[in-house]
Every structure is written in C-alpha cells, then in structure tokens.
Write a structure and sequence with these properties.
The chain is α+β, with helices and mostly antiparallel strands. Among the domains are: 139 residues; 70 residues; 115 residues, no CATH class. It is built from twelve helices and six strands. Helix 5 runs antiparallel to helix 6. InterPro entries: Phage_T5_Orf172_DNA-bd, SNIPE.
C-alpha cells in the first residue's frame, strides 16, 4: 500500500510537472505568436508603403512611356517629313559645311587682321619716325635750315617754355607712353588696387628716367655737338624701350617728337644768342668804323683848312713881293704864284671832298679781295668800307687772324655802297661758305662771275685785277 502510494505520488508529481511545462510552453508559444503578429503587422505596413510607392512609380513610368510614345511618334513624323523632303536635308548639310568653312575663314581673317594690325602699328610708328626725321634738319656745314624763324632769342625762350608745358600736358593725360594690358605679369592674388598702384609707379619711373636722360643731353647741348646730341636722344629712347619691352610699354612718338623739338629750339636759341652777340660786335665794330671815318674826315678837313690858310698867306706874300720885284725876279715869282694857286686849289678841293664825305652816309667802296694761302682758290670776300682810304680796311683784315695778306682784285667806289654790296651778296648767296652766319662774306665763285655782275649792276666797265699775287704764300710754299 505504501509502495503504491509512493508510486502514485511520483506519477502525480511527474504529471504536475508536465502540466507546468505545458503551461510554460503555451505561454512561450503565445508570446511567439504575439511577436510574430507584431512583426507581421510591421511587414504588412512596409509592404503596403512599398506597394504604394511602386504603384506611384509604375504610374509615372506609364506616363513616361506614354510621353515617350508620343515623342517617338512626333520624332517619327519629323523623320518622315525629313525623309519626304530630302532637299531641305541637303540644304542643312550644305549650310553646316559652309558654316564650318566660314568659321575657318573667320579664323584666318582674324589672324590676318592681327598681323595687319601689328604691321599697321609698326608702319605707323615708322611713318611717324620718318615724318619726324623729315622735320629734323641737316646740320652739316653749309646745309643748315632753320625750322623756327624767330627774330629774338627771347622768342625762342618763350617757345621752349611752351614746349615744356605741352610735355607736361601729354604726361598728365597719360599719353607719354604706349601701353598695353600688363595685368598678366601680376599674380592673380594681387588686388586690383595694388596692380593699379604698381602700374602707375612703373609709368612714373619710365617717364622720369627718359626725362632725366633728355635733360642731361639738352643741358649739355652746344652748337658744335648738335648731331651727336640728336643721336644720344634717339639712343636714350631706344634703350629705354628695350628695357621695358617685357612690360609691353614704349615711349610715345609724339612725346619723343616734343623732346626733339625742344632740342631743336635749344639749338636755334644758342645760334640766335651767337648771332645777337655777333650783331652786337658788328654794331660796335661799325661804330668804331664810323668813328674812324669821322676822325679821317675831321683830320682831312683840318689838313685842308690848314693847307688852304698856309697857301693863301704864302700867295699874299708872294704877290706883295711881286709888286716890288725886278723884271727878272717877276718871272720867278709868277711861276711860284702859279704853283701856289694850284696847291691852293687842291686844298680847296680836298676840303670840298671832306665836306661831301661828311654829308654822304652811303658813299663808300665795295672791295673784292682773296687770300689763296688762307682759303684756297676761287674764294673771295665781298665787303664794303666807307673809309676815305679804303686800303686801310684791307690792311686791317690782313692783320686779323689770317696767316697771309689779302690780295685786292677790285675797289669799286659807289654813291650807295651798301646797296651794291647787298646786291652782290644776294646774287651769290647760294655760293656762300658760311650759310649760318651771313655776316661772313666769303663766297666760292669765279672772279669772272663777280666782274660780270658788278658791270651789270653799275652799268660801267670796272677794271678787275685777275692775278692774285699771294706773295707771302707762294714764297712760304717754296721754302
């Protein structure tokens, strides 16, 4: 009984345990079912969303397909139209080919245009330079032509001031230099304001350098070094242009021309100063010459007056002796009276000549002289003097800084000596040795031509001495 009870207890316990395990299993299963349902709900929601999205996409695709079909039909119609109209297609093809050809032609024309522009720019500069060269003058001896015909040195000074004002205006307007875009030489990191400041500083430096070079050349200018100064001015421009070539900058030709004009003005200013000094010297020399002439006239008047008084007294004395003289003495005294009357007449004529010379301001002598030893063959000085003794003037010239004496070929008296001299100078003006200083009266001309012109002007036959003695020169040559 106890054993059975024990066995039943064991069986009951086992059954109870199984029941408990079953309940636990049921709970676990219910939890799993619940979880699965929740997961199922989530999946169902996601499916519905995905389905809705795909449905929308399908609808959109259907629309795109419909639009594509419509577009396809439109394109097919266009293609059909194009196929039905082959001439239009050919025209389009031809137009496309022509368009390509035109593009090639345009490219070639642009290249040619650039070349022509460069050539034009170069040609313009060359033409400007040639024009400038035409404006410049030949400074060889005897070949000088003035550009500015000013009478006074002060007028040249005023023009120099005006020229410098024009230079300042050109610089102020920014036209002193030829400039192209030089921004490429700067880094892109440099600000525009900085670029502008750098470029302005470069321009100022170039202009200041060129101006300083020109000022040095012009300030050192003299009559003797004009040709060298012109070359130095051009060299300064060319050297500066080479140095700044990389910056695409060069000195403007118009600005350079102003500098050349300044050099020309300064040169002619120096010439005019010399001429004015020469003119002052000539005025002083003329005054001395006039003083000498007046002194000669005064001396001649005094001598003539003294001789006249002397001969008058002597004549009175001899006439008084004649009244008391014997017959033999009378013949001697009469002869003496004749000589005294002759001398008195000469003294009176001498006085009249002195008075006439004092009254006449233009009467004088035009002389033709040469100096083979100093100037060579066929070189003659045509000058004028109002001296009573014209050879005194020739002697003075022979003593004035020439190694040999002058030979006189003609000494022509004229009531209007200045006009005769001027006519001869005008006639032989092209044959002057010194074409700058017209007060230098030497001419390279044949003596026969001078003689012919003198006779044409005076209407008389003036005797010329053809042979130049040149004694000192010929003796020195033999030695």
């Amino acid at each position: 009984m106890g054993i059975i009870t024990g066995i039943l207890g064991i069986i009951l316990n086992n059954q109870i345990k199984k029941n408990i395990d079953l309940k636990q299993s049921k709970l676990d299963l219910e939890n799993d079912i619940k979880n699965n349902k929740e997961e199922m709900n989530k999946l169902e929601e996601e499916f519905n969303l995905m389905k809705s999205k795909r449905v929308s996409e399908l609808k959109k695709i259907d629309k795109d397909i419909d639009w594509a079909r419509i577009t396809k039909r439109q394109e097919e119609r266009k293609i059909e139209d194009l196929k039905n109209n082959n001439s239009i297609i050919r025209d389009i093809v031809n137009l496309e080919e022509k368009k390509n050809e035109f593009k090639g032609d345009i490219k070639k024309l642009e290249e040619e245009l650039n070349n022509v522009s460069n050539k034009l720019e170069l040609t313009t500069e060359v033409l400007n330079y040639q024009e400038l060269e035409e404006d410049l003058y030949t400074f060889q001896v005897g070949m000088f032509d003035k550009k500015y015909e000013y009478e006074l040195s002060e007028e040249y000074n005023e023009q120099l001031k005006l020229n410098r004002v024009k230079q300042k205006e050109v610089v102020k307007k920014g036209e002193a230099l030829n400039t192209k875009d030089i921004n490429d030489i700067f880094s892109y990191s440099v600000k525009d304001s900085e670029k502008k400041r750098y470029i302005n500083n470069i321009h100022k430096l170039i202009i200041r350098t060129f101006n300083n070079e020109c000022d040095i050349i012009i300030n050192k200018l003299s009559v003797a070094n004009i040709e060298n100064s012109r070359k130095r001015l051009e060299s300064a421009k060319e050297q500066i242009n080479k140095l700044v070539l990389i910056l695409r900058i060069s000195i403007n030709m118009e600005y350079y021309k102003l500098k050349v004009d300044e050099l020309q003005l300064q040169y002619e200013y120096l010439i005019k100063i010399q001429e004015e000094r020469e003119e002052q010297r000539e005025i002083k020399e003329r005054m001395r010459e006039e003083a000498k002439i007046q002194a000669e006239i005064n001396k001649l008047e005094k001598e003539a007056e003294k001789e006249q008084l002397m001969y008058e007294k002597m004549l009175e004395k001899v006439k008084a002796e004649l009244e008391k003289a014997s017959l033999e003495e009378k013949s001697i005294l009469e002869l003496k009276i004749q000589n005294l009357e002759k001398n008195l007449k000469e003294a009176e004529e001498k006085m009249k000549r002195a008075e006439s010379m004092a009254q006449k301001t233009r009467a004088g002598y035009v002389y033709i002289i040469s100096n083979i030893g100093s100037f060579g063959e066929d070189v003659y000085k045509i000058g004028m003097t109002r001296r009573l003794e014209p050879m005194d003037r020739v002697k003075e010239l022979s003593d004035a800084s020439v190694p040999f004496s002058f030979d006189v070929h003609a000494m022509i008296y004229s009531e209007d000596a200045p006009t005769l001299e001027k006519d001869l100078h005008n006639k032989f003006n092209e044959k002057r040795l010194n074409k700058i200083n017209l007060r230098k009266e030497f001419f390279n001309v044949k003596l026969s031509e001078i003689e012919e012109e003198v006779n044409n002007i005076t209407g008389a036959s003036i005797k010329f001495t053809k042979l130049a003695e040149a004694l000192e020169y010929r003796q020195s040559k033999l030695m």
